[in-house]
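tool=predict chain=A
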Amino acid sequence: MLVKVDDVIIPITISDFHPDNTYTVSPYSHYVSYGGFEEVKHLNNPPVEALIKLVMNPVAWYFRRAELDKVVYVNNYLLSTNLYPSVNSEQLSAVGEALIGWFPDRVIVFRSVDQRKNPHVYQALEANGYEMVLSRQVWYMEPGEAVRTRQYKEDVRVLRNHGYEVVDGKDLSDEELARALHLYNLLYLEKYSYYNPQFTLEFMKLARDEGILHMRVLKRDGRIDAVMGFFIRNGVMTQPLFGYDTALPLEMGLYRLLTLITLQEGLQRNLLVHASGGVGKFKKVRGGKSVIEYNAVFAKHLPVRRQRPWKLIKLISDYAIPYFRKMDF
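tool=predict ok
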């Protein structure tokens, strides 16, 4: 669905619980299935992992019973990162008030709110009574700063030595698009989690043909080994499509090469790069700066039993945020 206020169009999604929903449409998948049960595997500490799962089991039951997933997500493009259009505080207030009237039995959640690129959104929503709940830690990269780092220069050397050709996604055949989609699936679904966004080949064709995503692939000897796809909004670019052949040796440095061509695209277009979350140390040495991303949550119009799970998530997130900032996730 779409909401229009003045000349600004904002997508919304109406969510209900399903165990296989991606985290982009499900608070339960975000905070429990993915964030609670799957992410703990990366701690590499079996006793701590077992303890967290022991605690999470009753929490998961409670969240389902309290209808945590009965929400309206605002500015939700069904992607990991949702960039904001040019929108002012009055328009944000109007959208919020309208949604409460249209969906009086649902929590209203604005996704992807941070204080780096959209501080006015953060301030306006907070002033309207929204609770800022931890979503994740994300990274912004200034291409003009990144090119001055030693790592950037080393990445350029690696790309040159490996002999990859950077190919525009507009020139890809349907078969090559299928290969690109497979590379995304290898990284973001098979290696990370099936709670991440899942694209179809039909979407890939639409993205190519209509310019929804600007795609670039790394190709050598007729074979595509990595893919990156980005979109631009309000002076920022972000890359929801990112993948490479995980069977190839790590020494190939395909992730770093994708990051390199991302920065080069940003430099060419004079854009700030929203580098999403994860691999913080990698992004930091290339000039990345971290910021906490929030879900802005409004539930005050609902019965207390529906508000309580969000108050619990808020409480936990307030304790977790200093740890996130310290650890460079």
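The chain has eleven helices and eleven strands. The domain at 141-289 is CATH 3.40.630.30 (Aminopeptidase).
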